[in-house]
Amino acid sequence: MSQTVTKNKYETTIGLEIHVELLTNSKMFCGCKVEFGGEENTRVCPVCLGMPGSLPVANKKAIEYTIKAGLALDCDIASFTQFHRKNYFYPDMPKDYQISQFDKPFCLDGHLDVDTEGRHRKIRINRVHLEEDTGKMLHQSKTGRIADASYSLVDFNRAGTPLMEIVTEPDIETPGEARAFMQKLRRLVLSLGVSDCNMEEGSMRCDANVSLRIKGEKELGVKTEVKNMNSFRALQRALEYEVLRQEKLLNEGERVLQETRHWDADKNITTTLRSKEEAHDYRYLTDPDLVPMEIPDEWIEEIRNTLPELPNARKERFISEYELSDYDAGLLSATQVIGDYFESVLKIFNKPKTVANWIMGDLSMHLNAEGKEMEESPIKPKSLAGLLELIDKGTISGKMAKDIFQEMYETGGDADTIVKEKGISQISDESSLLAIIEEVIEANESSIEDFKSGKQQVVGFLVGQVMKATKGQANPQVVNKLLKEALAKH
Amino acid sequence: MAVSKKDVEHVALLARLRLSEEEVEIFTNQLSQILEHAGKISQLETLEVESTTHPLPVKNVYREDVVKESLSKDDALLNAPEIESGAFKVPKII
After folding, report:
1. Last residue of a domain, one of A374, A399, A422
2. Which of A92, A229, A410, B73 has its Cα between 20 and 30 A from that of B53?
């Protein structure tokens, strides 16, 4: 992973282009519904089919979402902005151009910081702009790849979906860093509620520009653009592969060709995405159908007011308000849902450190084991708070709580109910415990002498015997206290 | 000449137009004349003039995010030269 940077003579430079489909009801420039999947070509109209004479009108919500993302990424929001036509011939766009933005994007010059691989990294955001998504192509071949296809089918349901493009500066230095950045960006965008960021369904997609140069050199090396990475894992593996491939070429005295490469997740390699087209010449021109936009400060402020508490701010608040460690606060503020979960538990059971430990410990462990997210947790915040209250009151021991937790996770039941049903409450009642303690002492008479001669460890042994006799249900603290009193009396 | 034959051939390729030798000649001349004519503006003092990005004095036109009815699938595919499985069928791309 990072060995490519530290071990040898090259350093890696990675820049990302992330496309995010926005969660609007309707498309970017027409009223067709935005939805995933569905019957082909049923959500299309003259505008998104590029019929002559049809006129696009910009979706205000999509613009608000883009500005919102720009604000969350600390970007400057343009006071004047426009849409451009990006011209190219490819059947995924019926107009033969894509409405996009060129020199006047909505958002410029932001950053998103990540803590990863033991370093704090500031990744600058070059721009955030708005465009329309393309149609979906089905290449008819065994491999589904365009180069092997004898023809293709086009479904324009997706064409015209508002698509936000986030472009980073080439500030990323390792594949792992690229992955950490994407994960953080996804959490951020999710918390803004502007996209569902579903990588498998393609509502969040990422392309990477990768190049190598000899350490200390000023100019960047020749880059390749890697596409088709549909998960965080794929992103990291594709980049690791591509870095090694370029390194090998350079070590053998060969040149890296500037080209687009396709990540093949089955074979774990990148391959050239052959293209007959000559070098891109998109001939951007302002779209005469769409009028210029002035974004007044009041509108920007209005949008700023809709920003949720962002992960970094929440983390700082968790540290100051709940006295959590930097590490704990980071994990608990990583996503909106985890932070909300944590605070919902606290409303009922206000011991932050204990709650934090249970969420990051048992709960995360169970969720991770099943590949589930926090929102899918079968144990709701109220139930977890209930369990923690029972421990706090001494009704159950910490050890019992682990078993009850397991049961709660499997059945979705309440701690209270499970404790009652199974009769697994802790025995804290002194009179019933005393009887058992006397029995245990009688069975181990020599321990009285040991205790009186100062051998404290005998207490531990006897507590163990009491626990055994009560099948673990005795309250160890109470037993400990009672045992010492009883031994002293003998 | 403001435009070379090579420029014309390049633009024709980008626009997917097949031009004969003769046509390339004709368009090279015509396009040059047009550009030279438009080029006269560069002789004017325009420092004080704000650049025009759009011909109409209109700005900030938006629509609310409201779903409207789409075309029927049959209507949507009416212009398609070829259809397969409810999709537009297009020839081999590369």
Report:
1. A422
2. A92
Print the domain residue range for A398: 311-422
Q: How far, in Å, are A112, A145, A159, A207 from residue A226 at the CA level? A: 22, 16, 23, 6
Token digits of residue A442? 């009688």
Establish if B36 belongs to a structural domain: yes
pLDDT tens across A151-207, in order?
999 999 999 999 999 999 999 999 999 999 999 999 899 889 999 999 888 899 999
Domain assignment present for residue A2? The answer is no
Residue B90 lies in a domain: no
Tell me if residue A389 falls in helix, strand or coil: helix
Number of domains in chain A: 3
Does the predicted interface ipTM exceed a cut of 0.90?
Answer: no
pLDDT more than 90, % of chain A? 59
Find which of B6, B17, B56, B90 to mutate to test the A interface (most A CBs within 10 Å of its CB): B90
Residues A280 and A337 in one domain: no
Which of A422, A441, A476 is a domain's end point? A422
Q: At what angle do helices A232-251 and A175-192 cross, to 10 degrees?
A: 150
How many domains, in total, are found in chain B? 1
Q: Domain with B12 in it: what CATH number? A: 1.10.20.60
Beta-carbon contacts of A22 under 8 Å, excluding residues fewer than 6 positions away, are: A61, A62, A65, A66, A161, A162, A163, A164, A194, A195
**What tens digit of pLDDT does each residue of A70-122 get?**
999 999 999 999 999 999 888 999 898 999 999 999 999 999 999 888 888 99
Which chain A residues are closer than 8 Å to B88 by Cβ?
41, 91, 153-156
Nearest CA in chain B to A23: B65
Q: Which of B61, B62, B67 sits opposite A26 (nearest CB)?
A: B67
**DSSP symbol at A138:** E
Q: Residue A7 burial (CB < 10 Å; 0-12/13-18/19+)?
A: exposed
Q: Are strands A223-229 and A260-264 parallel, antiparallel or unpaired?
A: parallel
Contact indicator for A87, A97 with CB cutoff of 8 Å = yes
